[in-house]
Amino acid sequence: MTVKASLAAVLILALIAGCSSKNTAGFGGTVLGTMAKGVIEARRGAQPAPDLGAGPAIQVKIASLGWDTRMVALDRDGDVTIWHDGQGRQIATRNGVLIWTRGLGFDLMSAKVPSPRDIRPGNQYQRVSVYVDGADRRLERRYDCTVEIPAEPDASIRGQQVQEVCIGPSGRIRNDYWLGGGRILRSKQWISAHFGHLEILPQ
Amino acid sequence: MLNSWIAAMTALKSVSRSSSARFRRLGLGAILGAVAGAAWGQDIGTLNLSGSTGLIDMPSAESQPDGMFSVSSAHFGPFSRNTMSFQVAPRLSASFRYVAVRGWNRVLMDSPLATNYYRNFDVNYRILDEGRYLPSVSVGLRDFIGTAGESAEYIVATKNLGPRLKVTAGLGWGRLAGQGAIGQPFGPRRRATGGQGGTIGFGSWFTGDVAPFGGVEYKLSDKITLKAEYSSDVYPVETGARQLFERRSPYNFGVEYALGDTTRLGLYSLYGSSIGISAHFLLNPSRPRVNGTMDPAPVPIGPRPSALGWGEGWEGNGANKAQLLKDLRQQLAADGISVNGLRVTASSVEVHVQSGGLDNRAQVIGRTARALAVHAPGNIESFVIVPQSNGMPLSRISIRRSDLERLEHAPANDLAILAETEIAAISGAQAGPWDRAILDYPRFTWTFAPYGKISLFDPRNPVAIDVGLRLNAKYEFGPGLAVSAQLSKRLGGNLAGVLRPSDSVLPPVRSNGTSYNALGDPSLDHLTLSWYAKPAENLYSRVTVGYLESMFGGVSGEVLWKRVDKPYALGVELNYVRQRDFNQLLGFQNYSVLTGHVSGYLALGNGYHAQLDLGRYLAGDYGATFSLDREFENGWRVGAFATLTNVKFSDFGEGSFDKGIRFEIPLSWATGRSGQQKMTTMFRPVQRDGGARLDVQGRLYEQVRGYHEQSLEKQWTRFWR
Q: Which site from B351, B494, B540, B676 is most exposed, i.e. has the minimal number of CB atoms within 10 Å?
């Protein structure tokens, strides 16, 4: 729902009811205030990052939001790493493959993903992604994926580029990985229909 | 004829707890991607001047997306129509409309009203879906409850010819058979009820003349739609004796513009004589600001803190417990969760929590579980989480720590952890007693904020708004025992207009609303002492004493029986109250009454909830109220209710019996951040004295069911959120 849509919603809510009293600004005021904050946050894009310290870090880009943020490892649990930006947003990768996000809204809740070993040209496997839909109901998407070598690989990026083509009930998704030394060096992965792709670059 | 003083109060209340959920077994499996809202023109109809799916003045056979809620405003000639519509189910929609007709007594000076107001209810049911060759077909009733001035019935079909063109054709009875009648298939028109109105005129449906109507709709672009129709409504009263409106032609034309996917504006040429405008606002409960929430990410579970230093018998050490309590409180404060109790054994930790911020209850449990996993000493294997409301323990949720650790990053971990979680009953006795050191009572909270109040449908004051300041305070002595007060001071507005004393033949238990408004400033909205308890595993109780609501004070007691694992409940409420003085301070009038109800509650599945109350109402009448609500997991709720009592329709007065619609919209839906605040609105076409119930705060069912199995499991996908 866009800001314009939210404004329309507030207009209706304001028209047909009044303000509540629990917050000092009242319901309408609170909504407008929060939305204004949201708009400002979205427009600002990459804010000057808080000092996250040294340690393993990645650069995360979400083109649809105009984001370009540095994220630092918050926790490591076996082959899973949780990355955070210090502002309440986290993503988690299993051996470099995205498995969940938090704090973005329209988050990926959990996922069954391939390992870097599986992402080899010619392999086929299934992916499963779990989301929450607008009505807070569980939404599960299953994809049948095939790994190919792309027709026009991007030679400027280090690593062997492979492309994962996944077909599901809602359409086709392409994820790109640049592999090297049995690991994923860089990737462009699908988060959700709302955001599109997320790029993970090494730091 | 409309009674001269009609007032329906819509009052805004904040509810301090989230309350919504729908019963749906998770085992039914995932919903496919088709849930995503449909864009305009893809088998979804557009709205007409009457705020329901249709062409311009005529209906069509299509529907809005399931759950769509719309507010429409249309104006042409002397007419203004303001409509709220709701797509109750994929095939069934309902509309409530408020029509104003200006210049009513200009020519025919038989009424004191310069503007006449109608309230209409419509329903529409789609009996056939559009197929490759077949059109969609719907049946509808317009203005079927009420004084029946605009009653009409119709059957209509709509076919999409390609992606841009829609053709609609239908047959109408009643008002929709004013011109071009082709016969009387079911006999002459039987008059619907006159009298007080408000009743359903079954006998008149589909009788009398039938006439065709129809039109086309062409989508010029993504944003612009053209419409043309032939209307069979001749507006007999307005074009006849009252001479308000000239109908030169049965053809209407219009162009509509879509502003985003929530707003539509329209401009029309109507009946060859008027220009019309319309604006529609659409809220789709399934399209919030964000799916899920933008709340900050939770704390990762991480490796267990070691058990070193805690030692054997650590649980007996007060200092250790105090440290654990402090750590948990600090961790959960960020989520607005307060820890009201803590109990430890050698291998388990039990916390009693109350959520002040998160409206998704599975997320409350999940965040609490994470906090336990992070802070409990390493030898603790078992976590028990007891969510509370007003000090009442609602359920007992058991999770193993090793399952949390194992499943934190697993695919489909929401279902996986649910399979390992036990939701059981808990009694008040099992919950306490507590160390004084743990309880952080007494607690005092207060808010001071502006408020707004709207009153609609009073013909002398159709849109009346008051604004003022409100002080809310709550002092909690201990779990379940609190004093609560609300004081309001009006700053300005036109709501407290003319004093109109009640003309009801019944005791004026609600019909003196204007007196309360005019004289109750400042007003002590409520001042109560409430006591909540959990006498047994499945039994909840409430006693509230004091000034219970703006018009009544006294004693209110309630007992609710509900099992954690069942979707139904049974309650009994008994109140002895006295009517308060109009100045809404500490005085009372002479009228007192014993009221009470036996209530049955049932979650029907798919988000529908039914409630039946039987008992005695404030005016001393006996009867029953039936309510049906539709809830979405994200907190949206729309419902309707009707009450029939032993009060004769003629004694009740206009409207014949008490009925209304209500809806709740959670703040978190609009902002994308969790919050328990909701906008709650109730519309009553007419507020009279029959079937009136005490408006006491904090009734049991809504606060109790949220952490029971059905409600909690439906939100479970956000456990790990």
A: B494
- The reply to whether residue B681 touches residue A17, judged by beta carbons under 8 angstroms, is yes
> Which regions of B375-434 does DSSP assign to beta strands (E)?
382-389, 392-393, 396-400, 422-424
Residues of A in contact with B717 (CB under 8 A): 109, 130, 132, 136-138
Name the helix (H) or strand (E) containing B375: helix B361-375
* A100 → chain B, closest CA residue: B409
Peptide bond preceding B296 in cis form (omega within 30 of 0): no
Preferred mutation among A7, A22, A32, A40 to probe B, highest tally of B CBs within 10 A? A22
Q: Is the pLDDT of residue A31 over 70?
A: no
Interface test with B, best of A87, A136, A142, A191 (most B CBs within 10 A): A136
Interchain pair A140, B24: CB under 8 A: no
Cβ pairs bridging A and B (under 8 Å): 245
Instruction: Determine if the pTM surpasses 0.80.
Output: yes
| Ranges of residues in chain B whose predicted pLDDT is under 50 | 1-42
- Report the percentage of chain A scoring pLDDT > 90: 53
List CB contacts of A141: < 8 A, sequence separation 6 or more. A128, A129, A130, A131, A168, A169, A170, B30, B33
d(CA B10, CA B455): 6
Q: How confident is the model over B61-87, as pLDDT tens digits? A: 999 999 899 999 999 999 999 898 999
Distance from CA of B651 to the nearest CA of A (A): 31
Distance from CA of B604 to the nearest CA of A (A): 17
- B257 pairs with which residues across the strands? B224, B265
Sort out which chain B residues have CB atoms less than 8 A from A83's CB and list them: none
Residues found in chain B: 721
Q: What is the pLDDT of residue B355?
A: 92
Closest residue of B to A89, CA-based?
Answer: B297
Comparing CB atoms, the residue among B30, B261, B302 nearest residue A75 is B302
CA distances from B306 to A80, B207, B670 (A): 22, 81, 43
ipTM for this model: 0.82
pLDDT at residue B75, rounded to an integer: 93
3-class DSSP string for B25-67: CHHHCCECHHHCCCCCCCCCCCECCCCCEECCCCECCCCCCCC
Nearest by CB to residue A75, choosing from B31, B288, B300, is B300
On the CB side of A14, CA atoms within 13 Å amount to 13
* Contact present, B192 and B226 (Cβ < 8 Å): no
Give the pLDDT confidence score for residue A40 in this predicted structure: 56
More confident residue, B481 or A156: B481
Residues of A in contact with B671 (CB under 8 A): 30-31, 34-35, 38
Q: In the structure, what pLDDT confidence band is assigned to residue A17 with cuts at 50, 70 and 90?
A: very low
Interface of B with A in 641-680 (CB under 8 A): 665, 667, 670-673, 677, 679
Instruction: Tell me the CA end-to-end span of chain B in Å, nearest whole number.
Output: 56
Place of tokens 């569980």: A138
Decide if pLDDT at A29 tops 70.
no
pLDDT tens-digit map of A66-88: 889 999 999 999 999 999 998 89
